Amino acid sequence: MDGLSRPRINNQSPGSANSAESLRQDSDDGNIAGVQSSLLFPQNVKPRSAPILCIDDEPKGLAVRKMLLESQGYEVFTATSGREGLAIFARHRVPAVVLDYAMPEMDGAQVAAALKRIDPSVKILLFSAYVDLPKEELRWVDAYAVKGDHPKAFFAAVQQLLSC
Prior knowledge:
By secondary structure, the protein is an alpha/beta fold. The chain has a domain at about 50-164: Response regulator (Rossmann fold, 3-Layer(aba) Sandwich). Helix content is about 40%, strand content about 15%. The chain has seven helices and seven strands; from the N terminus they run H-E-E-H-E-H-E-H-E-H-E-H-E-H. It has a five-stranded parallel β-sheet, sandwiched between helices. Helix 3 links the parallel strand 3 (about 50-55) and strand 4. Helix 1 crosses helix 3. The N and C termini lie far apart (about 35 Å).
């Protein structure tokens, strides 16, 4: 980390001011992660059955993933640290977690191990900018995806994770 103070994303429940709707309104050019926002936000999205917890210390990336998942009807909880994510997971036993690898205090491998100790059936997608992580860092995760890929690849990874 660079030592700078970063704003935190509030852990608001889905449908709150931090929802996809409010983030969609904040997009001034109509593009999100290089994709025309109208393609990502269908008008009548049916809610999906699986809530998802996203854990990442980078607020902007976390907000984009939350918005993308909500646009597909997922209920999304967010956390900006491993400890916060574990606390949310203790309250809301979600079936799937999208987890960043490089975070201060607890890295993604440590968080994944702690999540699996709480609930061995939880599905974990490690979502990282690191392309070549050692196998021992991946032993607690069910899937791995690289940050920076097209949102369609992210959706495919989430759908595959939930179908396991």
